[in-house]
Design a protein that fits this description.
The structure is a homotetramer of 346-residue chains.
Chain A: E1 3-8, H1 13-22, E2 28-34, H2 43-46, E3 57-58, E4 68-71, H3 77-87, E5 91-94, H4 104-110, E6 124-125, H5 128-137, E7 140-142, H6 146-160, E8 167-174, H7 189-192, E9 197-198, H8 206-217, E10 224-231, E11 238-244, H9 255-268, E12 275-277, E13 293-299, E14 306-312, H10 316-330
Helix pairs in contact in A: 1-10, 5-10, 6-8
Chain lengths: 346, 346, 346, 346
């Protein structure tokens, strides 16, 4: 089998990461890449780390005859590109946010008028650990946000088992590449270096995504999520520290409770290729460049609260790697194909 | 007035920072510095950034005739050194943890048998914003931990006014210098760089300090604090993100509540020279090298929770700067003397 | 004495560093600051690290009644501002490049048509270690570039004594703040971090400055300088590694030659307050935030070449600190006033 | 074909990098790994980034029945381990320095008494671009140092064609992982971060390696090399800036000379899979995690000097990747097998 793939907007960080990973995928042929400002250039001259990847960067409307298109455009533009590719009979993985929220009003509260609301119903939220079966059948995948991936993988086992109060705090620390390749004072090296700050304190766009999916897992609760992202001085990686309160005596503030908590996570993720319940607290560097998510649940026995720490690479499991995992599922390829590389450590 | 000062263990990060700051203090003469492995060397050869600070590094027992001694030794050794200096009629600021916890059992739970429990009663917890009057009269100051300083300055206004539930989450992000100058794999550049992780998940020694002081402010509550420190790839700075829940209608989840919250903080800290309630979210880099703490309270109007973000330099307001602020108070010097430098930005 | 000072373009890195340092200068009153995009804002709100520096940022033409104006504008605009201030009877320190090159053709080869060539003759190249006497009398100072400062302080003793061939290689490593506050892909955190590269390989604008001043010291030689700047992943600091060849037997490739070399430097800089000949190889971090330059000459006894390594903070001795050192000289203040702070280490 | 491989000292940076890369090598089965302090632990628990690499870490003398052994021990210990493995009929790639210098006196000048001098004659210096044919036949490979790899690949074309004077300056900038995993103040995050310094100024052990190989290429010259390594605040990567002087009119200081220079390099490296002559100045980040070396020759037309800039990942082409490239050659596998991954960028 050889899947013909195209990347829309290869010049952003998610786009170039797709190109990097697809090169080691034995079942995919990358036949075309697009990029607005760089159209006309050779991919390996524009991005020298993609050595001898001899593809010309073309305009978006020149992307034809692909089995799958990955869109790494900004939202809104991405929805338009995705719809165009569906019209060309491609299956589509949208790395932008346009098809993640099922509710169009919710989307329009956080973004802008939706450019293609009629496609919201068929789009599948592409977190394989929650929606694997639907992904296999999907024509249009909404690839999850980087923060929601870490938050949801940390919360899913407890939510599924109805073990926690619906009050959740997610405190996330992200590397700067999560802000994309666009320029701003915030990502200026001299100001991001040796600095840490919280942002999005009045509400971050990844919040409704987290809430929606918690509600999908357990609609009986009214989920009240506080989500605080932080920018820290590194390029890749997201660490999320999640605080929840158990509901009843099943997870008591005791060594027994702590063990049950750990068993729950190990069982829940036993068969997942890209989630590992670690024995030591997660380190983002141990996931850098890989599609792995590290998950570490711990009982705060003094207060009875549960803390779950998760780590992943925001550009891989948080973007390009997860997109390829979704593609594998859509096309019946082995789910781990192209994604077996280890993290670069140190 | 000229206060004769000595620094015990000048070769650690807090010790060398004391030397740096004291140089610009017009009312202090630094007459002696000690350092175990470096005894016999000249300070400015051992630490070339302290240019032309022509002091020999001496053994600890050679430290005599000082009005004030700062101890920057590790705990236990520090208590012993402090007691020795008190015996020489010096007033003492202990930057280590030995005299911070009033309760000896609590201390021994987190550390080791206390080397000088009889001094616990007279020691004053040196957070000027909480205990200014006692500090002025003290002979022995327990300089607060770096994390508790940021946590307590973020919480004090709400606790004082009894506005929050006694359930508190403090999620702190610290630069690597907080771990001191000792070597370990954790602080190896190649492993700390491009990495973030949580630590102390089974309990960090700064937790009982936070709890003790919350109880000092409002003993009517049983404070349940979850404190999670994180190591992030920068040298200086601590950002603490604090999550609490208001108790009643005085701080509703509304624009009015948000405004009242902000007014509370601005009023509470109006006269404090080293706490600033900022208009934009704090950045640790804006405090680097200075004694300032930035505090930013915000209402999460979707959930009704309150988030307070604080930023400071762990080696200045979190250690050496606060020690000098305490010394100023103890000796009747202007509180800000020697501490008026701005942060180094960028 | 109180010198009334103004800063033109306080919002760039050199401008804000001037404001920071001037605050601790007992003989200067900073009465006005200008900034194009930020005019109308309060300085301490626009730049929160300048806490309680309660100055409004004004338009450039509102800057009046100052004894000295510092221009931290980009070149060309800076020349125009400097001339305007001279017309208002201020003395001027230009941190930009417009008055550094005496020869207008040379300037126009590297920059653009000179906006005020008639002022070139009176402008003094403000490197105090070379031109102290002229600086004292100057009305208009051309503050040296950051790279030339490190290169010239490393070379001056050998050139002065005519001890080297006129073939010089300067390999410099600079922190990212040297590129200023403007945005570009090069200074994007995600691409500057964990990266090092050479730039300006076809010629950097600081090269003619180095060559001009070597010729000033020894006009009998035709200086052939190769200068290669590199961008490294840190905010502040320049380390320059300089390679030269001795001319004759006075500095032989032997321990004696090595000692003579070291003696030469120690003698030459014995009285300089801001140059220190170090006993260990320089570290930029040991100069961070201070006006110090570290200089370390060493004989490569295998080849007979001499290597000189220099370190400084590009924003202090390489820009704002040196400008204030120049101001002190111009106004008869103690040369070190306001500049005695130690480096921030670690 | 399946080559059975073992790694000696998997717990250092070169050792763990070998394990990472070998995982994606289709023709190798990693059957055993050794590590002194970690013996008895599972590899993937000791190094969580090597997820599900379920090998026990064993003692060195338990390493048997391998076709190839990679030694990533420190020098001296490494020679002993290599000899032991040769005695077990394994072919050996020594990543340490013990067999790099052909001359035992030279080795003993820089290191210590040689533990196995009788093997020096048969050992092959494993830089495939210089010694490919010998490597294919070798039983014992001395894998080159990280600095010499970048220096020699930058110099080889000019030396081979006898186009330069035998006076060479190599100014190298290395990430901190080059110093290995051992602890020291130099690699403490708080002191390596935001810092750059030169080291080895009285002579670095990689210097004789560079000189030896230049002499191998052109023994008619007496090579006088000055080599200055620098430590910069990043984990991986070496950038070397090399300064040489052309000998005659074949490379004149003109656009024609510049073009001839470039043509020379492009021709010389046209067939090399892991050397790329780039169109823009090299960036270490463009090689991070990959086996690629970027080479960029440029004519300084003002002085007639030639500058060559090279970039590589010190742990891959500078250590583990080159070792695997050597193994491929020794066993007749495709030279690029296992080494085709792109760099991780950003």
């Amino acid at each position: 089998m050889s899947i013909k793939a195209g990347i829309i907007n290869v010049t952003g960080y998610a786009g170039m990461e797709l190109a990097r990973i697809l090169r080691s995928h034995s079942g995919v042929e990358l036949i075309a890449v697009t990029g607005r400002s760089a159209a006309g250039e050779q991919l390996d001259e524009y991005l020298p780390h993609l050595d001898r990847m001899g593809l010309p960067i073309v305009e978006q409307d020149e992307l034809d005859d692909v089995d799958v298109a990955f869109s790494a455009l900004p939202h809104k533009a991405s929805a338009e590109a995705c719809v165009a590719m569906l019209g060309k009979n491609a299956r589509v993985v949208d790395i932008a946010a346009d098809f993640r929220l099922h509710n169009v009003e919710e989307y329009e509260t956080w973004y802008q008028p939706h450019p293609a609301p009629s496609f919201l119903e068929e789009a599948v939220y592409g977190l394989p650990e929650l929606h694997r079966d639907q992904i296999k059948e999907a024509r249009l995948i909404a690839n999850p946000g980087c923060y929601p991936t870490g938050a949801l993988l940390g919360l899913a086992p407890l939510v599924k088992e109805k073990l926690i109060e619906p009050n959740v705090i997610v405190d996330s620390k992200s590397g700067v590449s999560g802000a994309g390749r666009s320029l701003s004072q915030t990502v200026h090296f001299s100001e991001a270096n040796e600095n840490v700050s919280a942002y999005g304190l009045s509400g971050h766009r990844h919040l409704p995504e987290i809430t929606q999916e918690l509600h999908e897992i357990d609609p009986s609760q009214k989920w009240a999520v506080t989500f605080t992202p932080h920018l820290i001085p590194m390029t890749r990686g997201i660490l999320s520290t999640i605080y929840v309160t158990p509901v009843d005596g099943r997870l008591p503030a005791s060594p027994e409770g702590a063990q049950r908590l750990r068993d729950l996570y190990e069982d829940y993720y036993a068969a997942e290729p890209f989630v590992r319940v670690t024995k030591t607290p997660p380190q983002t560097k141990q996931t850098s460049g890989s599609n792995m998510t590290q998950v570490y649940p711990v009982m705060d026995q003094r207060t009875g609260r549960i803390i779950i720490v998760t780590a992943l690479d925001n550009l891989v499991k948080g973007a390009a790697g997860q997109a390829i995992q979704n593609m594998n599922l859509m096309f019946g390829a082995p789910e781990t194909e192209g994604l077996e590389e280890f993290a670069l450590f140190p």
